[in-house]
Amino acid sequence: MIKHSFLLFAVVLLFITACKPSVSVTTLTGKWKYVKIEHPNASPPDTMKKADLDEVAPYIQFTPEMKFLIVWGGKFLAHGTFTLNGGNMNMTEKLEDGKTRSYVFTVSELTENKIVFETIGVDASKVTALRASKF
């Protein structure tokens, strides 16, 4: 019985890890328009309304040179470089004072036209974005 339970656990674990999206520079390259932003750890959990998103028109752009740019309300919010590690994007943001800040975006869904990525921690956010253009 224990042997069967272990085998079932191993199959389920393999299935779960196999479902994690494959993230590549080629797949990411382009401009992605934010369509939903959630803050699951807020009390109560919060989702930014579509009308509010339409007003500020946020997007993230990834280049083949592994650079990123985030625009919010027509202004540059963040920029820097990224590396890939499985389903994670390791972001290194360049700050105005010449310093850098690092954080991780975990990709939970990625298709040709949709990406869902999230941060962890107290201020965690989950972003759903649709491809606006490719390079």
Strand content: over 45%
Structural class: alpha+beta
Average pLDDT for all residues: 86
User: Numbering strands along the chain, what is their spatial order in the largest sheet?
Assistant: 1-3-4-5-6-7-8-9
Helix count equals 3
Poorly predicted tracts of residues: 4-18
Q: Give the biggest sheet.
A: 8 strands, antiparallel, barrel
Radius of gyration: 17 Å
Question: In a nutshell, what does this entry contain?
Answer:
By secondary structure, this protein is an alpha+beta fold.
Could you characterize what this model shows?
Strand 1 and strand 2 (46-47) form a beta hairpin. An eight-stranded antiparallel barrel has the order 1-3-4-5-6-7-8-9. It has helices at 2-18, 25-28, 50-56, and strands at residues 30-39, 46-47, 59-62, 67-72, 75-85, 88-94, 100-110, 114-118, 126-133. The termini are far apart. Helix content is 21%, strand content 47%. The chain has 135 residues and is of the alpha+beta class.
Secondary-structure blueprint:
Elements: H1 2-18, H2 25-28, E1 30-39, E2 46-47, H3 50-56, E3 59-62, E4 67-72, E5 75-85, E6 88-94, E7 100-110, E8 114-118, E9 126-133
Antiparallel strand pairs: 1-2, 1-3, 1-9, 3-4, 4-5, 5-6, 6-7, 7-8, 8-9
